[in-house]
Amino acid sequence: MTSSLHPTRGKLLKRFAQIGPYIREQQCQESQFFF
């Protein structure tokens, strides 16, 4: 599988941060993200 289909957690957090200040990084877990 290519990495573009499964981005790393760090890349996901960066993308979510670009969307807006809605991500709550302290509450995020490995496969769960809180906004």
Produce a short descriptive summary.
This protein is mainly alpha-helical. It contains one helix and no strands.
What does this structure look like?
Keywords: Activator, Cytoplasm, DNA-binding, Transcription, Transcription regulation. This is DNA-binding transcriptional regulator Crl. One of its GO terms (molecular function) is DNA binding. It comes from Proteus mirabilis. The chain is mostly helical and 35 residues long. It has one domain (7-35). It is 31% helix and 0% strand. It has 1 helix and no strands. It has one helix spanning 9-19. The mean pLDDT is 69.
* DSSP strand tally: 0
* Major beta-sheet overview: none
The poorly predicted ranges are: none
Q: What is the overall number of helices?
A: 1
Give the quaternary arrangement of the chains. single chain
The proportion of strand residues reads: under 5%
Helix percentage range: 25-40%
Output the radius of gyration.
10 Å
The arrangement of helices and strands along the chain is H
Query: Roughly what is the average pLDDT, rounded to an integer?
Result: 69
Structural class: mainly alpha
Q: Give the overall shape.
A: flat
N-to-C terminal Cα separation, in Å?
A: 28 Å
Structural domain count? 1
